[in-house]
Amino acid sequence: DIGDIVRGKDLYLGNPQEKEQREKLENKLKEVFGKIHSGLTDSGAKERYKDDAKKNFYQLREDWWTANRATIWEAMTCEANGTHFRPTCSMNGSGAQANNKCRCENKTGASGNVSIVPTYFDYVPQYLR
C-alpha cells in the first residue's frame, strides 16, 4: 500500500515488467526525501536522520508517514463519495459502512471528527494482507 511505498518497505515484486517503474518511483522518493533531509536545520533532527550510504532516508520516511498519514487518507478519499462498501464502522453496535467519504464518525474521540480512518492496514505486515 502507499504507506509501505513511502516508507520504502513495499514487498510487492509483482510483474517483472514493472520493475523499472518501481525503481523510478523509489528513486523519486529518495530525491524528495533527500531534499527534505538537506533542508533540516535543527541539529537534533540532523542527528536523528543521519544520512545513510544509499540515501534511503528510511527513518525520515517513517516519521514523515506517521506525521502525514491522516492527511494522505483525507486526500485519497476526498472524492470517494461513499464508494467504500465494506463494514468498517461500528454504529449502534452494528457493522456499518463508512459511507461518509470512507470515514467513520468518531463517537469516542474528538467531537465531530469524521476523518477517523476505518482501517489501519498499513500496520498489518504486508505478507499477511
Automatic annotation (TrEMBL):
GO terms for molecular function: host cell surface receptor binding. Residues 1-129 form the Duffy-antigen binding domain. InterPro entries: Duffy-ag-bd_sf (IPR042202), Duffy-antigen-binding (IPR008602). GO terms for cellular component: membrane. Coiled coil: none annotated. It comes from Plasmodium falciparum. Gene3D superfamilies: Duffy-antigen binding domain. This is Erythrocyte membrane protein 1.
